[in-house]
Amino acid sequence: MHLERDAPAAARPLIAAAAWRRVVAIFLAERERWALWLPVALGLGVVVYFALRFEPSLWLGPTWVALAIAIGFALRARTGGMLLALVLAVSGLGFAAAQVRTAMVAAPVVPREIGPVAVTGRVVLVEQRPDDRRLTLADVVISGLEQDATPARIRVTVRARGAAIAPSQRVSLRAVLLPPSPPAAPGAFDFARQAWFERIGAVGYAVTAATVLEPADPGWGDSIAAVRHGLSQRIHAVLDGQTGAVASALTTGERAGIDDKTWAALRDSGLAHIISISGLHFGLLAGILFFITRAALAAIEPVALRFPIKKWAAAVALLGCFGYFLLAGANAPTERSFLMLGLAMVAILLDRRPFSMRLVAWAAAAVLLVAPHSLLGPSFQMSFAAVVALIAAYELAREVFARWGRNAGFVRKAALYLFGVGLSTLVAGLATAPFALYHFDRFSTYSLAANLVAVPITGLWIMPWAVAAFALMPLGLEWMALHPMGWGIDWMLAIGKAVAEWPGAAITLPAMPVAGLALVTISGLWLCLWQTRWRLVGIPVLALGLFSTVLVARPDVLVSEDAAYLAVRAADGGLWVSSARSNFTVDTWLRRDGRESGGRWPASGNATGDGRLRCDGTGCLYRTDGVTVALVQHEEALAEDCRAADVVVAAVAVFVRCGAPVVLDRLDMWRSGAHAVWISGGDVRVQSVAQTRGARPWVLPRSGT
User: Fold this and answer.
1) Which residues, in sequence order, are CB contacts of 187 under 8 Å at separation 6+?
2) Could you tell me if 535 and 635 lie in one domain?
3) For residue range 109-134, what is the model confidence (pLDDT) as tens digits?
């Protein structure tokens, strides 16, 4: 009897050993895909660096790599040990790359609001917006600041009227300057970190018109910017309004002229990606140049028979895309897109397959080494998610498509093209949706329907006319191509506006936690990079990552950095907000909470409908789950509220003795940024922006009283 009872327990090690052998066998069968995970290891090192709450010493990254190499040497006789050491070394390389990049871009940041002050600087970027212009200035001189405390670059909004401003000109103005803003809530977007890597040490607004001084001698970068600005002006001279603004965005990358209404329609319909120059545009341009060149060369029989015209066409496409890359601003998204497209054209020149997962892995590794900070942005995440998913889908479906396309006539080819567009849109949309939810908290319900119509218009009409416009510009005849291009843009905008008006076109959802995004990313890579059935293990992990949004507890009280704005949780789960006007802070709170609008803050002497929030002339009392929170606006209310409340949130500095267990005053906000308060079961938990950011180079230190 005892033997029978113990038999299952004795068999467990054997079962576990057999399962492990099965896993090892599957892993070995996938050895050709191992290299695809090296960029993932590189990215892991980057993530570890940015997740730290302190700035590590520069020796830490190289030491990490050296230790991994030592482990590999010690375990060189074991395949598993060598693979582990390789992963550790590559992740250490990513960590070191992030350290080096952070140190390379280091530049002064203004510590507080200053001005109005006199500012002069060289214009490196002009963004013409519907109501104003935004200038990025380099070689800046700011009155009252020593040169070693002056930012490398600043970004200033100026009036729309006034003299025309172009890149490479030196301008002077008076402006109010502020440090780049920290997150509006714990875990929200950190503009200050983004500005650090763009070397922007101050942002602000001009209080006078910008005066153009003598133009500086333009450098190579300034010349490209001047050409871009000139082309944009020529486009606007032919195409008016939003049609011209979108045409400029598609050709030169200048998107500032697109107004909020148009952006909202494109975003809600799922067409905003068409306006942002990305792999789609480079792929369309390369395809147009490749096939036109190859067709032209094929028409010349002696050339077609004697020379590798396919490689020549690839070289022409590569050169054309390089020019487009420079014209579009050579920023992070265009860098990634050009790198992937360039590698594809080089693969054709070397008689290799132009589009493969290995190619994407090389591109991702190159981007992470050169610009590791881009891993944190939506552009990197969404572009690579789309490409990886599309190639994985192609690997699954290529034999089926090849069979369907064999001996196909015109009608079947057209049907296959439309089916391919629909499938690509569906795959790319599903792949990028979690990242869009994490960064923008919105989901475009009818994106597939809008893209099924708009993408063919872009590929078959708008982009060919854009290429023709570039070709005709030296002759001054660009209008011949821009007008037809404008018709296509009008069709695309009409589609976007129509779809955006459909019921439920865009849904705002609560912010996804970082852990959820990590699960989605790893599970998505697991599904796409492996080829055997064990890839399906990623499906439940993916579902858990997506479901994580509803598992996160939302804060019950939110306080802005300057204590000027407040929000509290309503009984129905909504938010009561203290400001009826739209502003960045409140809009961020509502969006991250998955809401389009907030409840109206009660006037003095009134209460909210659920009775949780009651206000008088000196502040408000908020009660939930047995906890009383005093929201104090004036010092005279402190004595009473400190006795009666469990939590005191004061828009003034608290210098008196306060008996409340938790006290957050104006000085706490100044030192630590915006605060969030969670209340559950009578317990109170507080988190500040400073706690989530730590002491990093892009975080301005604040101390004192």
Assistant:
1) 511, 513, 514, 592, 692
2) no
3) 999 999 899 999 998 888 877 778 89
Closest to 355 (Cα-Cα) out of 325, 384, 387: 387
Which residues have a Cβ under 8 Å from the Cβ of 251 and sit 6 or more positions away?
Answer: 231, 232, 235, 327, 466, 469, 470
The answer to whether position 225 is within a domain reads no
- CA–CA distance, 484 with 494 (Å, rounded to integer): 15
Mean residue pLDDT of the chain comes to 88
**Is residue 571 domain-shared with residue 636, that is, in the same domain?**
yes
pLDDT for position 14: 73
Evaluate if residue 251 carries a pLDDT over 70.
Answer: yes
Q: Of 529, 514, 513, 433, nearest to 40 (Cα)?
A: 529
Torsion of CA 134, 140, 141, 146, to 10 degrees: 120
* DSSP per position, 607-640: B-TTSSEEEETTEEEEEETTEEEEEE-SGGGHHH
- Tell whether 547 and 611 lie within a shared domain: no
Model pTM?
Answer: 0.87
Residue 8's pLDDT is 64
Number of domains in the chain: 5
Are 252 and 184 found together in one domain?
A: no
Q: What integer pLDDT is reported at residue 3 of this predicted model?
A: 45
Q: Are residues 252 and 357 in the same domain?
A: yes
* Stronger pLDDT, 431 or 3, i.e. the higher one: 431
Strands 627-632 and 647-650: parallel
Residue that has been written with the tokens 């865009």 in this structure: 506
One domain, residues 404 and 296: yes
- List Cβ neighbours of 76 (8 Å cut-off, separation of 6 or more): 82
Residue 251's identity, in one-letter code, is T
The answer to whether residues 496 and 356 belong to one domain is yes
Of the pLDDT bands very low, low, confident and very high (cuts 50, 70, 90), residue 1 is very low
* Band (704; pLDDT cuts 50, 70, 90): very low
**Residue 486 is assigned to a structural domain of this protein:** yes
- With helix as H, strand as E and coil as C, how does 330-364 read? CCHHHHHHHHHHHHHHHHHHCCCCCCCHHHHHHHH
Judgement on whether residues 299 and 439 belong to the same structural domain of the protein: yes
Domain boundary among 172, 193, 217: 217
Q: State the residue range of the domain holding 136.
A: 114-217
